[in-house]
TrEMBL record:
Keyword vocabulary terms for this entry: DNA-binding, Transcription, Transcription regulation
Superkingdom of the organism of origin: Bacteria
Domain HTH gntR-type as annotated: residue spans: 7-75
Record's keyword annotation contains Aminoacyl-tRNA synthetase: no
Cited CDD domains: WHTH_GntR
Protein name: HTH gntR-type domain-containing protein
A Pfam family matched in the record: GntR
Stored PROSITE patterns: HTH_GNTR
Gene3D superfamilies the UniProt entry points to: Winged helix-like DNA-binding domain superfamily/Winged helix DNA-binding domain
InterPro entries in alphabetical order: Bact_HTH_transcr_reg (IPR050679), Tscrpt_reg_HTH_GntR (IPR000524), WH-like_DNA-bd_sf (IPR036388), WH_DNA-bd_sf (IPR036390)
Length: 76
């Protein structure tokens, strides 16, 4: 996925992760890439990747396991 540099980056990253979850790339209970990996993949800062994951967490799409990372939530 190519980031549109004219638009805010974090919503684009969040939407791509959400799309991958919907497509089954990341299954429920599976760990999603961390901020370092996402930053490298999308060529954004780690804070941008962190903000994207924080939004998905607030929406209940992912959850955090302390010291282990972000994981896909079970569908409701």
């Amino acid at each position: 996925m190519e980031i549109n540099r004219a638009e805010p980056h974090w919503p684009q990253v969040a939407e791509e992760i959400r799309r991958r979850i919907s497509a089954g790339t990341y299954a429920p209970g599976e760990r999603v890439p961390g901020t370092v990996a996402l930053a490298a993949e999308f060529d954004v800062s780690q804070s941008t990747a962190s903000r994207a994951l924080a939004r998905l967490r607030a929406e209940g799409v992912v959850y955090v396991v302390s010291g282990r990372g972000y994981f896909v939530s079970e569908p409701t």
